[in-house]
Design goal:
By secondary structure, this protein is an all-alpha fold. It has one domain (about 1-290). It has 14 helices and no strands.
Length: about 290
């Protein structure tokens, strides 16, 4: 069940990332993340109201704050990378952040079986293969650096989501969303201040920058829903299984992103990238059998 929940979380993360990256090609990544955080917080607050989960908020405290800050940095850098580079390259690179929770899990005493250890290695090799070939074929340095930054940020965020979920997954996500929304608000104020200082009559208005059309509104609602659902499923999976195992299963979100990029945006993947995706799936299979 732990691996299944982690796989479902990876599918939802991948879908959320595809939608966010695609929308970030039309709107600022900061705006996309800000509105997605509003949508996500709305879903979390409803869940906390229905489940009466407020008592856990002060207990989780800084765990949720750290997860919120690093998660926000990860989303902004990831969406920026997706908006400037090829999804089939950026998404797999970002998934290398799985190394962080795997290392933490092993350091805390996780003891995977021999078959699961093999699965972890095969899955990680698959992820690297899926990310490499197109870097030499025109992807600039900036998207790669941003993707690596997102990888580290996501790795830390996932580790703290798992830690907070030992107490309460929804409370952890609630604090995360409040923190991320606060950061978005501060950045919005900075943007407004800079806009007023320019005094350029031809510059776009703040309203035009942050406003969304109807299609974009539904997109950010979907992003918030899929991201929150993925976080909850991963948080729960981390309470049911070893962190080093569920982290690998949850890191396969690039598969969904790459598939959507290929079917919707018609991005073509090299043969070695397809082999990498296959190896990643085989690795998860070995983990499950172990």
């Amino acid at each position: 069940m732990a691996v299944l929940l982690a796989l479902l979380s990876s599918a939802m993360w991948g879908t959320s990332d595809f939608l966010g990256g695609n929308l970030s090609r039309r709107k600022s990544p900061y705006v996309v993340v800000g509105w997605a955080e509003v949508a996500g917080l709305s879903f979390v607050l409803v869940a906390c109201l229905v489940g009466n989960r407020w008592d856990a908020w002060p207990i989780i405290g800084w765990t949720g704050v750290i997860a919120g800050v690093t998660g926000y940095i990860g989303l902004v850098t990831f969406y920026t990378a997706l908006s400037r580079g090829t999804m089939g390259v950026v998404a797999p690179i970002t998934s290398l952040g799985v190394i962080v929770p795997v290392a933490v899990g092993l350091g805390q005493g996780d003891q995977p079986t021999g078959l699961q250890e093999l699965g972890i290695v095969v899955a990680l090799i698959g992820i690297v293969m899926a990310s490499g070939p197109e870097i030499r074929g025109g992807t600039g340095l900036l998207p790669v650096v941003l993707a690596l930054t997102a990888a580290l940020s996501f790795g830390i965020a996932v580790t703290y989501i798992a830690k907070g979920s030992q107490t309460d997954a929804f409370a952890t996500l609630g604090i995360m969303r409040v923190v991320a929304l606060g950061i978005s608000g501060v950045l919005l104020l900075v943007m407004i201040a800079r806009h007023r200082m320019k005094q350029d009559p031809n510059a776009p208005t703040v309203k035009s920058i942050i406003s969304l059309d109807r299609r974009a509104v539904w997109t950010v609602i979907a992003i918030g829903f899929f991201d929150v659902s993925a976080n909850v499923m991963f948080g729960v999976s981390s309470t049911l299984g070893l962190l080093s195992i569920v982290a690998v299963a949850g890191s396969l979100y690039p598969v969904a992103t790459v598939i959507l990029a290929g079917t919707v945006l018609k991005e073509r993947l090299a043969t070695i990238e397809k082999v990498g995706v296959a190896l990643a799936l085989i690795g998860v299979g070995l983990i499950s059998l172990g």
